[in-house]
Specification:
It is a single chain. This protein is 47% helix and 19% strand. With 179 residues, it is α+β, with helices and mostly antiparallel strands. A hairpin with a 7-residue loop joins β1 (121-126) and β2 (134-140).
Length: 179
């Protein structure tokens, strides 16, 4: 009877460890940067994310629940359950670490800016008067962008144009495009 009680206590302890790990994973998913910022003062960035909340939480959840399952299902002792839980925790924690590293090191597109607009082709959507601004759409970095546009001569709507200069983040200088 004592052995069964000790085994039940071990299962309970392992389930609590697993629940703490699961809570850590859920908090890091729901609160993200806020949660990570709470522990930012510790500055323990050793191992390229190995001590991040999702990785530690995944390890603890897998360790706790895996050890509890081994002890409960096989009747093994707490030490054997802990070894099995450690193995499952290392596997799941390693997978979480690999996923975290791949997300952190994922290549991203350059930030869209107006600096590379000069020479881009566009179309006038609101006529450009000689002394004011109209509007043009320009395809830049694979998407359409609308800008205020100024030109040296009036250009009617629907005319193809070429950007000659960037005046500001929302305005460009254009000229009629030669066919």
């Amino acid at each position: 009877m004592l052995e069964f009680a000790l085994r039940g206590d071990a299962v309970t302890a392992f389930i609590v460890i697993g629940a703490v790990g699961l809570a850590l994973v859920l908090l890091s998913l729901l609160l993200g940067e806020v949660f990570e910022g709470l522990f930012g003062g510790l500055d323990i960035d050793v191992g390229g994310g190995i001590f991040s909340a999702p990785v530690l939480g995944s390890f603890l959840a897998s360790f706790g629940f895996g050890a509890a399952l081994i002890v409960y299902a096989t009747g093994a002792g707490a030490a054997l359950g802990a070894l099995g839980g450690l193995a499952s925790g290392l596997v799941v924690g390693g997978i979480a670490l690999a996923m975290m590293r791949s997300l952190v090191n994922m290549p991203t597109d350059d930030t869209v800016s107006t600096s590379g607009l000069a020479g881009s082709a566009g179309v006038v959507i609101t006529a450009i008067p000689a002394d004011g601004f109209g509007e043009v759409t320009v395809r830049h970095h694979g998407s359409q962008h609308k800008y205020n546009a100024r030109a040296l001569e009036p250009i009617p709507a629907g005319s193809p144009v070429r950007v000659t200069a960037v005046l500001s983040a929302s305005a460009v200088q254009v000229e009629r495009a030669s066919d």
